[in-house]
Amino acid sequence: MKVAEFGKVAVLFGGTSAEREVSLKSGQAVLNALKSQGVDAYAFDTASQPLTELVNQHFDRVLIMLHGRGGEDGTLQGALQQLAIPYTGSGVLGSALSMDKVRSKWIWQALNLPTAEYQVIDKSSFNAEHCADIMVRLGGIVMVKPANEGSSIGMTKVSDAGQLSAAIEQAFQYDHQVLVERFIVGQEFTVSLLGERALPSIRMQTPRTFYDYEAKYQASSTEYFCPSGLDVETESGLAELARRAFTAVNGSGWGRIDFMQDQAGQFYLLEANTVPGMTEKSLVPMAAKQAGMSFAELTLEILATSEVSR
């Protein structure tokens, strides 16, 4: 698709979610790249501009760079469909399912895709007296995650019942439903998806307790390996698992699937991301670069996903 055919493009970023700061950085980087390629692109912060302005200002399509709730959970996608404005990435269902760690895990489990043992905790029925039993059943070390947050926000690694109770209460500050998952000792990988293609996998390594918000966006001690060091057969198998997992939650256009590999070499699905970060430290641009694609070329490929009929 020629650049001129994209028309007037709004890059949606900022917003009001807990990931606003990351979204601002992602959106500005993407906006600059699109402009450098001659795209008629404009900044659009949904925290200060109503979506109806997209119609009033005659935008032809939007590139979504809103991370977290209100941008990645299907609500924005539904609004854009009602406004008949083409948008990038997954549709309503794929966005909603991918954002929800509990329901995406249920789908993967139903399809016999590998995912760690877990328990779902609802705020209305949580009883701290059950924490000891949960720790025993899930192997003694667990990750606590709000069901609907990204960028590791609200996540905690715990190793005893007292810590678990406190971590669950902290996660309830972000969501009424919490996922408690067996902690997998091993290495963390991610696979980015662009259309039908899986980009080279990346292995992340951090001296921190786990690959948390600081390790992702702030620390200089995080190491990234791309190529990740997997042999050709394992790399191919991981790419196929990423595609299957993304398709299972109705993901489309572009996205990222995160994994843990245990010490026996088994991969486990962690989560799906339908609007991954696009900052200077982000993983999708890193994988694209390894595949021979510049950041500017990647942004055009992402923008082109707005042509998908829904």
UniProtKB/TrEMBL annotation:
Co-factor(s): Mn(2+); Mg(2+)
PANTHER family: D-ALANINE--D-ALANINE LIGASE, D-ALANINE--D-ALANINE LIGASE B
Catalytic activity of the protein: 2 D-alanine + ATP = D-alanyl-D-alanine + ADP + phosphate + H(+)
Family membership noted in the UniProt record: Belongs to the D-alanine--D-alanine ligase family.
Enzyme class: ligase
ATP-grasp domain span: 105-304
Domain of life: Bacteria
Official protein name in the record: D-alanine--D-alanine ligase
Subcellular location: Cytoplasm
Keyword presence, Cell wall biogenesis/degradation: yes
Source organism per UniProt: Bowmanella denitrificans
GO molecular function terms listed in the Swiss-Prot or TrEMBL record: ligase activity
